[in-house]
Amino acid sequence: MLGALKGHLAPALSLAEENESRQSLRIIDERTGAEYRVPIKLHTVEAKELAAIRAPGGPPLRVFDPGLINTCVRSSRICFIDGEKGILRYRGYAIEELAARVCYEEVFFLLLFGDLPTKGQLQFLKNKIKQMAQVPEQVKSLIKSFDRCASPSSIFLAAVAALGACSACNACNACSACNACNACSPKQRSLIWGSAALQNKKTLNAFLIRAVAAGFTIAANILRHVEGLSFVDPHPDLDLVENFLYMIDGKPHDPVIVRALEVLFILHAEHELNNSTAAVLHVASSHSDIFTALAAGVAALSGRRHGGTSKAVVEMLEKIKSKNDVKDFLEKVKRREARKP
Fold first, then answer.
1. pLDDT digits over 7-19, tens only?
2. Which domain of life is it from (predicted)?
3. More exposed terminus of the chain, fewer Cβ within 10 Å: N or C?
């Protein structure tokens, strides 16, 4: 079945790749009369080419772009977005097809490894996620130490960082990031503290799987905590999204509800170099440990102009209440009596 899906979901090249050209930009520096030709590739020019332009004795020409509004800082084949045309692709696969035909674990595998998994690979990943879904007691205690009215994103930030502090000791055996042992050795610590994990793809992937598996559990624990409820442990027989719902209220859910939430998670799985992704890359570039870099992403996501927009959408939907109220709400927006997120 998965093999057939992979054939059906044929990767599509990004528009930029389809229209790749090797044209150039002709620049005349009116200060000196010098002429320069700057190569254009994939609709971009390299800053180092502009740095070659300078007045005698002056500094290289630089680009001033506050907020990096029109600046590319990385190239990636993981995700492609064209918001104006409504295009979102993961590794070349159209989001519409992925949302209609695959599960969240398959999308996670796709983003991590570059292609959809085989049946065996998918089952292996699901088993790994189930093994790593348990959260250390230290992290649970940390969550419980927060006031129930504390911001959930602040609790999540602290818990992710704490998960990293525990993972060098508690997660290695579960994720096979290093040789099995009963105590935290210098070798184990080096896998998470410092650059060793970032330089070893197998180790990095193992800790990323750990972060996703435990992250869902942490999120469910936080939801239970703010409601004043005891935590529900992960169910060993449930897949990731269904398990998340189970940990929220301790009961099975309608498959339609499970699938609806799964599609929502698939749609939010990857969105190019947004604010939180940039924060993760910025911190990771210093060769921090993996979980500290991820915590930086959580911190960025907590902002009103990033993750806060999702909350604003929910609040908007609560105001609209039903489809019969949509037209009236849009009219209020036009009259500036209401705002769209």
1. 334 444 444 444 4
2. Eukaryota
3. N
